[in-house]
Fold this protein.
Amino acid sequence: MATTSTVAVGAGSVPGGRRRRDVNTLPLMAPSVVLLLLWMIVPLAMTLWFSFQYYNLLNPFMTGFAGLDNYRFLLTDRALWTSMGNTLLLVGWVLVITVGGGTLLAVLFDQEFWGRGVARLLAIAPFFVMPTVSALIWKNMLMHPVNGLFAFVSRTLGLPVIDFFTNFPLTSIVIIVAWQWLPFALLILLTAIQSLDSEQKEAARMDGAGPLAMFFFIILPHLGRAISVVIMIQTIFLLSVFAEIYVTTSGGPGLASTNLAFFIYQRALLDFDVGLASAGGIIAIVLANIVAIFLVRSIARNIAD
Amino acid sequence: MRSSLRERILITVLGWLAAFLMFFPIFWMVLTGFKTEIDAVSTPPKLFFTPTLENFEAVRARADYVHFALNSIIISVAATALSILIAVPAAYAMAFFPKKRTKDILLWMLSTKMMPAVGVLVPIYLLAKDLGALDTRWGLILIYVLMNLPIVVWMLYTFFKEVPKDILEAGRMDGAKPKQEVWMLLLPLSVPGIASTALLSIILCWNEAFWSLNLTSSQAAPLTTFIASFSAPEGLFWAKLSAASTVAIAPILIFGWMSQRQLVRGLTFGAVK
């Protein structure tokens, strides 16, 4: 790519830039660094602190150091485990659908066909729709058991009408979120496929590789890194899926579609139990960090040049 | 091309089918926006109907819609402008005067993006409450600046690195001071990069729906919160809601289409090229 070569030339001339004077970069960096440092440390420290306190906004008499009580209470609460399980199901299924579908779509949109540019624009559009709007489109116009389009199609075909949010709440949310994130996977995997050396593809074709062999032995191995990046970035965002649940099911029926984010929201802003919600927050942060470590490593490898 | 005509037709059909399926929900919503309320909930659903602009008229006439749209615009534009203002010096320093620690600092900045929002919901909510920032525009602007700063710094850094150093060098030789160098040379040269960074930041702010739902209710609520408030009335205002939603997503959809390439760069932090 042209950009990489200019970067390389630029990096080569660094000594020339340094020669004139040693610029003090501290004042230039300070605003960004200080702001992000505060943004990182203050809320984290507060969450950690609260998670060891008895602290309920509705009950001002119950205060003081709680030790591990919040964690003990949470970890023995079935609701936490249900919502953790839902979180894993939600993240897992959305990843399977978006990475699988995204790879297929990326291969498809890598081919030349009539009107490809416009078709690609249409396919990536869902990513730019605000989450509350996409949730309402699906809830009101597609999945609604009376007036929804799906209900109409079922009735026309003589099939029973499915009340999505009552009978399959988590599945419905998986469908909505997967629809939003499929374009993201498509965009990134398409970029990765297009960076594949065309000579390499040509050579494989000369050697008589069919489309399937081409896909499994050339394209898929090349996509490995991009796929792992898609998985990691999506995981971090998907751990915090909130608006889609807030608008459609409010976590119900029962706990059927409550994920960790919604669970914490309920503890914090509906029950006002700051201590308990904070302990839940710490659990979410630990989960995200397990993923983040791998992501940072993979980014670091690429910044090196 | 070597592929046969039949293959090419098949691929064209498949490609358009995929595009159609992905876009259909949006298409259906836009269509509903042009229906009367009765057509919108009719069974069987109507694909052909007499289109009406009454919903868009109604949306435009409602003062509160304008209020929420204005909130969205002010908050995303202000947060974007502020984060670019803060990020330019840092990106400039990292791109042109790399030190031993530069790479580590960049990585650390990106890693702050990986904190799940829900993990810090409690302290941010309490801080906002104590500082009187709940349901205020400036509160949300501040959160969005902090949320997007790593991405903005990162994108500006990659764009600045593509500016040929010789030009800045020549400016220095002619006696340009650092400030002049940035204002007269670097910024004009990287206008396209800054523009796409701004576009991405606006898209992210506009569509953000965790902090806006939790921290705002009426005064400072952007369109995301406003639309969410329609989740209750069953089948009452579908056509109007669709018209309102269409207006709410249209500008961002166009921005997104314009910046799809830079989006990959910004959202993967360069991990995919």
Summary: The two ends of chain B are 27 Å apart (CA to CA). DSSP finds 14 helices and no strands in chain B.
